[in-house]
Write a structure and sequence with these properties.
Arc Repressor Mutant, subunit A, Tetracycline Repressor, domain 2
Protein backbone atom coordinates (compact mmCIF):
# COMPACT_ATOMS: atom_id res chain seq x y z
CA UNK A 1 0.00 0.00 0.00
CA UNK A 2 1.20 3.46 -0.76
CA UNK A 3 1.82 5.93 2.03
CA UNK A 4 1.10 8.78 -0.43
CA UNK A 5 -2.65 8.28 -0.23
CA UNK A 6 -5.26 10.97 -0.56
CA UNK A 7 -8.77 10.79 0.77
CA UNK A 8 -11.63 10.82 -1.70
CA UNK A 9 -14.86 9.00 -2.59
CA UNK A 10 -16.14 9.22 1.00
CA UNK A 11 -14.39 6.15 2.38
CA UNK A 12 -12.50 7.80 5.22
CA UNK A 13 -12.63 4.70 7.42
CA UNK A 14 -10.93 2.54 4.76
CA UNK A 15 -8.39 5.26 3.97
CA UNK A 16 -7.37 5.57 7.63
CA UNK A 17 -7.26 1.78 8.09
CA UNK A 18 -5.09 1.48 4.99
CA UNK A 19 -2.73 4.18 6.22
CA UNK A 20 -2.59 2.47 9.63
CA UNK A 21 -1.67 -0.85 8.03
CA UNK A 22 1.11 0.89 6.09
CA UNK A 23 2.55 2.39 9.29
CA UNK A 24 2.23 -0.83 11.28
CA UNK A 25 3.84 -2.84 8.48
CA UNK A 26 6.78 -0.46 8.24
CA UNK A 27 7.26 0.68 11.84
CA UNK A 28 5.06 -1.42 14.12
CA UNK A 29 1.86 -0.55 15.98
CA UNK A 30 3.63 1.63 18.54
CA UNK A 31 4.40 4.16 15.78
CA UNK A 32 0.70 4.90 15.13
CA UNK A 33 -0.63 8.39 15.64
CA UNK A 34 -4.10 9.51 14.56
CA UNK A 35 -2.72 12.90 13.55
CA UNK A 36 -0.12 11.28 11.27
CA UNK A 37 -2.73 8.93 9.80
CA UNK A 38 -5.01 11.88 9.05
CA UNK A 39 -2.14 13.56 7.21
CA UNK A 40 -1.44 10.37 5.25
CA UNK A 41 -5.13 9.98 4.38
CA UNK A 42 -5.34 13.65 3.36
CA UNK A 43 -7.98 14.67 5.92
CA UNK A 44 -8.16 17.00 8.91
CA UNK A 45 -6.41 15.84 12.05
CA UNK A 46 -9.74 15.33 13.84
CA UNK A 47 -11.40 13.28 11.05
CA UNK A 48 -10.17 9.79 12.08
CA UNK A 49 -11.74 10.21 15.53
CA UNK A 50 -15.19 10.24 13.91
CA UNK A 51 -14.75 6.59 12.94
CA UNK A 52 -12.38 5.25 15.58
CA UNK A 53 -12.67 7.63 18.57
CA UNK A 54 -9.01 7.13 19.50
CA UNK A 55 -5.86 5.12 18.77
CA UNK A 56 -7.16 2.11 20.70
CA UNK A 57 -10.35 2.17 18.64
CA UNK A 58 -8.31 2.17 15.46
CA UNK A 59 -6.16 -0.75 16.62
CA UNK A 60 -9.32 -2.59 17.64
CA UNK A 61 -10.67 -2.13 14.10
CA UNK A 62 -7.37 -3.42 12.67
CA UNK A 63 -7.54 -6.49 14.92
CA UNK A 64 -11.20 -7.16 14.08
CA UNK A 65 -10.49 -6.91 10.36
CA UNK A 66 -7.48 -9.17 10.82
CA UNK A 67 -9.44 -11.84 12.66
CA UNK A 68 -12.14 -11.75 9.97
CA UNK A 69 -9.56 -12.27 7.21
CA UNK A 70 -7.84 -14.90 9.35
CA UNK A 71 -11.06 -16.86 9.89
CA UNK A 72 -11.74 -16.78 6.14
CA UNK A 73 -8.26 -18.16 5.44
CA UNK A 74 -8.56 -20.94 8.02
CA UNK A 75 -12.07 -22.01 7.06
CA UNK A 76 -11.03 -22.92 3.52
CA UNK A 77 -8.33 -25.35 4.69
CA UNK A 78 -9.35 -29.04 4.62
CA UNK A 79 -7.43 -30.32 7.68
CA UNK A 80 -5.29 -29.25 10.62
CA UNK A 81 -2.00 -29.33 8.72
CA UNK A 82 -3.39 -27.13 5.95
CA UNK A 83 -4.96 -24.81 8.53
CA UNK A 84 -1.46 -24.36 9.89
CA UNK A 85 -0.21 -23.58 6.41
CA UNK A 86 -3.08 -21.09 6.02
CA UNK A 87 -2.05 -19.57 9.37
CA UNK A 88 1.50 -19.06 8.11
CA UNK A 89 0.28 -17.67 4.78
CA UNK A 90 -2.03 -15.27 6.59
CA UNK A 91 0.81 -14.02 8.80
CA UNK A 92 3.12 -13.42 5.85
CA UNK A 93 0.36 -11.93 3.70
CA UNK A 94 -1.04 -9.67 6.44
CA UNK A 95 1.90 -8.90 8.75
CA UNK A 96 0.43 -5.62 10.04
CA UNK A 97 -2.82 -7.29 11.07
CA UNK A 98 -0.87 -10.17 12.59
CA UNK A 99 1.21 -7.79 14.72
CA UNK A 100 -1.90 -6.22 16.24
CA UNK A 101 -4.23 -9.22 16.57
CA UNK A 102 -2.20 -11.06 19.16
CA UNK A 103 -1.41 -8.07 21.37
CA UNK A 104 -4.57 -7.68 23.45
CA UNK A 105 -3.18 -4.68 25.30
CA UNK A 106 -3.54 -2.71 22.05
CA UNK A 107 -7.30 -3.11 21.59
CA UNK A 108 -10.61 -3.10 23.39
CA UNK A 109 -11.25 -6.65 24.54
CA UNK A 110 -15.02 -6.09 24.80
CA UNK A 111 -15.57 -4.76 21.28
CA UNK A 112 -18.46 -6.76 19.73
CA UNK A 113 -16.98 -6.83 16.21
CA UNK A 114 -13.62 -7.99 17.55
CA UNK A 115 -15.22 -10.63 19.78
CA UNK A 116 -17.29 -12.05 16.90
CA UNK A 117 -14.29 -12.19 14.55
CA UNK A 118 -12.07 -13.82 17.21
CA UNK A 119 -14.74 -16.41 17.97
CA UNK A 120 -15.08 -17.29 14.30
CA UNK A 121 -11.29 -17.71 13.97
CA UNK A 122 -11.17 -19.79 17.16
CA UNK A 123 -13.90 -22.08 15.85
CA UNK A 124 -12.00 -22.53 12.58
CA UNK A 125 -8.90 -23.55 14.54
CA UNK A 126 -10.90 -25.92 16.76
CA UNK A 127 -12.49 -27.54 13.72
CA UNK A 128 -9.03 -28.45 12.47
CA UNK A 129 -8.16 -30.11 15.79
CA UNK A 130 -11.46 -31.99 15.89
CA UNK A 131 -10.49 -33.60 12.58
CA UNK A 132 -7.41 -35.24 14.13
CA UNK A 133 -7.44 -38.94 14.87
CA UNK A 134 -7.81 -39.91 18.52
CA UNK A 135 -4.16 -41.00 18.52
CA UNK A 136 -2.98 -37.59 17.31
CA UNK A 137 -5.38 -35.59 19.46
CA UNK A 138 -4.66 -37.55 22.62
CA UNK A 139 -6.79 -37.37 25.73
CA UNK A 140 -7.10 -33.59 25.78
CA UNK A 141 -8.38 -31.90 22.62
CA UNK A 142 -7.85 -28.48 24.22
CA UNK A 143 -4.13 -29.17 24.75
CA UNK A 144 -3.87 -30.52 21.20
CA UNK A 145 -5.38 -27.22 20.04
CA UNK A 146 -2.84 -25.26 22.09
CA UNK A 147 -0.03 -27.36 20.61
CA UNK A 148 -1.29 -26.73 17.07
CA UNK A 149 -1.71 -23.01 17.72
CA UNK A 150 1.72 -22.76 19.34
CA UNK A 151 3.36 -24.51 16.42
CA UNK A 152 1.69 -22.35 13.75
CA UNK A 153 2.00 -19.08 15.66
CA UNK A 154 5.59 -19.71 16.71
CA UNK A 155 6.60 -20.70 13.19
CA UNK A 156 4.86 -17.65 11.69
CA UNK A 157 6.43 -15.31 14.25
CA UNK A 158 9.91 -16.71 13.66
CA UNK A 159 9.38 -16.47 9.93
CA UNK A 160 8.22 -12.84 10.06
CA UNK A 161 11.13 -11.83 12.27
CA UNK A 162 13.64 -13.33 9.82
CA UNK A 163 14.82 -16.03 12.19
CA UNK A 164 14.10 -18.95 9.85
CA UNK A 165 15.76 -17.69 6.69
CA UNK A 166 18.87 -19.87 6.99
CA UNK A 167 17.07 -22.78 8.66
CA UNK A 168 14.59 -23.25 5.81
CA UNK A 169 17.23 -23.57 3.14
CA UNK A 170 15.50 -24.26 -0.18
CA UNK A 171 12.18 -25.25 1.39
CA UNK A 172 9.19 -23.00 1.12
CA UNK A 173 7.69 -21.95 4.46
CA UNK A 174 4.55 -23.93 3.59
CA UNK A 175 6.47 -27.16 2.92
CA UNK A 176 8.57 -26.71 6.05
CA UNK A 177 5.45 -26.17 8.14
CA UNK A 178 3.76 -29.26 6.70
CA UNK A 179 6.79 -31.34 7.72
CA UNK A 180 6.83 -29.84 11.22
CA UNK A 181 3.13 -30.48 11.69
CA UNK A 182 3.66 -34.07 10.61
CA UNK A 183 6.44 -34.46 13.14
CA UNK A 184 4.25 -33.17 15.96
CA UNK A 185 0.85 -34.60 15.14
CA UNK A 186 1.49 -37.80 13.23
CA UNK A 187 4.37 -39.26 15.24
CA UNK A 188 2.06 -41.84 16.86
CA UNK A 189 1.08 -43.26 13.49
CA UNK A 190 4.60 -43.12 12.06
CA UNK A 191 3.79 -40.40 9.49
CA UNK A 192 6.40 -37.62 9.41
CA UNK A 193 4.53 -35.47 6.91
CA UNK A 194 7.05 -35.80 4.10
Amino acid sequence: MSSERTYHHGDLRRAVLGAALDVIGAEGPDALSLRDLARRAGVSHAAPAHHFKDRTGLLTAVAAEGYTLFADALTDAPDLRERGVAYVRFATGHPAHFQVMFRPELHRADDPELLAAKERATEALRAGVSGLSDADRGDDARLAGIAAWSLAHGFATLLLSGNLTDALGDRTPEDAFRTLAGLVFARRSGDTGD
